[in-house]
Design goal:
Layout lengths: L7 H16 L3 H22 L4 E5 L1 H4 L8 E6 L21 H12 L2 H10 L2 H12 L4 E7 L6 E6 L4 E7 L2 H16 L3 H14 L12 H21 L8 H15 L5 E4 L5 E4 L6 H4 L11 E2 L2 E5 L7 H19 L18 H10 L38
Parallel strand pairs: 2-5
Antiparallel strand pairs: 1-2, 3-4, 4-5, 6-7, 8-9
GO molecular function: metal ion binding; mRNA binding; poly(A) RNA polymerase activity
GO biological process, one term: polyadenylation-dependent ncRNA catabolic process
Keywords: Magnesium, Metal-binding
Length: 400
C-alpha cells in the first residue's frame, strides 16, 4: 500500500504552485507573441494609418495567459462607441427636404442588397479581414468576423506560431481593466496561481468564451477577487488569521460559487473591499436583472458602474455545476482517502498534449512546489477545518 509523505491539503497546495510554474509564460513564448503583435501592428497601420493606436489587454497585458490563451488586441480608430461594424462616424446631414429624402429612400430600395454589401465591406471589421486575407493568406488557419455581439470581433489564428488573436475596436475600458487587474495581482498573492488553475479548468470544459455564454477571463478574475475579499472579511469578523494555502482556497472557491452563492438573487461588486447586492434592488435592477436569464452572473464593472460584466454569461448553471462537481471530487481526495493519489489537482484538470510537452521539457514533478508553513487558525495538521471554522466541515451559509 502506498504512503503519503505530506498531508493532502499541503500536497494540493504544492501541486497548484507546480502547475503555475509549469503553465506560466516563458521568456521565449512572450517574445514570440510580441513579435506576432508587431507584425500585426504593421497591417493595422497599413489599413487605418499610423496615427491609429493599438493596445493589448486581457491576459496578455496582465501576464495571466496560458499557452493556449488568445492575444486580446483593441484598435482605437476614433469611431463612436458601438460603430465598429459601421463605415465610420456620423455622416454629414444633407440639406434636403423630407419629400426628397423619401424619394431617395424609395429609389435606394432597389439596390439595397448592393448598398449593404458595400457598407459591410468598408467597415473596420471587414477592412481588417480583407487585409489579413491578402497579406497573411498562407499563414492563417482560421479567420472569422463576429459582428452580432456586444463586442464585435475579428478572430484569427496564425498558423506558424499557432497563436490566436481576438481583435476589437475602440474598447478603452479594456486597457484600464488590465491595469486594475495588475493592481489586484500585486495586492492579492493567491490571485495569480488561482487564476492559472481556474482558467485552465474553465477552458478544458469549454466554459471560457463569453460569446458562447461562458465565463471570460476578466469575469473569472473578478470572481476570484470577490471570493478573496469575502474570505478576508469573513476571517476578520470571526477573528481568524488568513493563510495562503492554495489548496484550501481552491476548494473554498469551488464550494462558494458552486454551492453557496445564489446567482439568481445576488450581484457582485469588488469596490470598497467587495460587497454583494440584490440584483432586483431599485437602483440595480435596470442594469443587472435579466428577466429571460435570471441565472446570469451579475458582476458590476468596477470601472463603469452601469455595465454588467457577467451579462453575456448565460451558461452559469453549467459553470456552477462544474464548480460543485470539482468541489466534491477534490474534497474526497483530501478527506481521508482510501488510497493515495499521485495528483489531486489532476483529478479535475485534464492533461493535454501541451501540458505533457511542457512537463517533459522541464522535468515537472506533479507534487513539486513550496511547502505552505502558515496554517490557518482552526485547521488541523492535514489542512482541514475544525468544526468551529466556516467551510465544508461545518454548516454552510447561503448567500442570497
Amino acid at each position: 500500500r502506498g504512503r503519503r509523505t505530506i498531508p493532502p491539503m499541503i500536497q494540493l497546495h504544492n501541486e497548484i504552485v507546480g502547475f503555475t510554474r509549469l503553465m506560466e509564460p516563458r521568456p521565449e513564448e512572450v517574445k514570440r507573441r510580441e513579435a506576432l503583435v508587431e507584425e500585426f501592428r504593421k497591417i493595422v497601420h497599413a489599413v487605418f494609418g499610423k496615427e491609429c493606436k493599438m493596445e493589448l489587454f486581457g491576459s496578455q497585458a496582465t501576464g495571466l495567459f496560458l499557452p493556449s490563451s488568445d492575444v486580446d488586441v483593441t484598435i482605437h480608430t476614433g469611431l463612436a462607441k458601438g460603430d465598429a461594424s459601421k463605415e465610420g462616424g456620423e455622416e454629414e446631414k444633407s440639406e434636403v427636404t423630407a419629400k426628397q429624402q423619401r424619394e431617395q429612400e424609395e429609389k435606394d430600395m432597389d439596390s439595397w442588397e448592393a448598398s449593404a454589401a458595400v457598407n459591410a465591406a468598408s467597415s473596420p471589421l471587414r477592412r481588417l479581414e480583407s487585409a489579413l486575407r491578402s497579406r497573411w493568406l498562407d499563414d492563417l488557419t482560421y479567420l472569422e468576423v463576429i459582428e452580432n455581439t456586444r463586442v464585435p470581433l475579428v478572430k484569427f489564428t496564425h498558423g506558424p506560431t499557432k497563436i490566436s488573436v481576438d481583435v476589437s475596436f475602440d474598447m478603452e475600458s479594456s486597457t484600464k481593466a488590465a491595469a486594475l487587474m495588475r493592481t489586484y495581482i500585486q495586492a492579492m498573492p493567491p490571485l495569480r496561481p488561482l487564476a492559472f488553475v481556474l482558467k485552465y479548468f474553465m477552458a478544458s470544459r469549454s466554459l471560457n468564451e463569453p460569446y458562447t455564454g461562458g465565463v471570460g477571463s476578466y469575469l473569472l478574475q473578478l470572481m476570484i477577487v470577490s471570493f478573496l475579499q469575502h474570505r478576508e472579511r469573513d476571517g476578520y469578523n470571526n477573528n481568524r488569521v488568513s493563510v495562503y494555502n492554495l489548496g484550501s482556497l481552491l476548494l473554498e472557491f469551488f464550494e462558494f460559487f458552486g454551492m453557496d452563492f445564489n446567482f439568481v438573487t445576488t450581484g457582485i461588486s469588488v469596490r470598497h473591499d467587495g460587497m454583494f447586492f440584490p440584483k432586483g434592488a431599485r437602483d440595480k435592477k435596470e442594469v443587472f436583472w435579466q428577466e429571460s436569464r435570471p441565472f446570469s452572473i451579475a458582476m458590476e464593472n468596477p470601472l463603469d458602474l452601469t455595465m454588467d460584466v457577467g451579462k453575456p454569461s448565460f451558461r452559469v448553471q453549467l459553470v456552477q455545476r462544474a464548480f460543485e462537481t470539482a468541489f466534491k471530487v477534490v474534497l474526497a481526495h483530501v478527506s481521508d482517502p482510501a488510497e493515495p493519489c499521485n495528483s489531486i489537482l489532476g483529478t479535475i484538470l485534464p492533461v493535454t498534449d501541451e501540458m505533457r510537452k511542457r512537463r517533459d521539457q522541464v522535468g515537472f514533478d506533479e507534487r513539486a512546489g513550496a511547502d505552505p508553513r502558515q496554517q490557518r487558525r482552526g485547521s488541523d495538521g492535514r489542512g482541514r477545518r475544525r468544526r468551529n471554522d466556516d467551510g465544508p466541515a461545518s454548516k454552510r451559509r447561503r448567500y442570497n
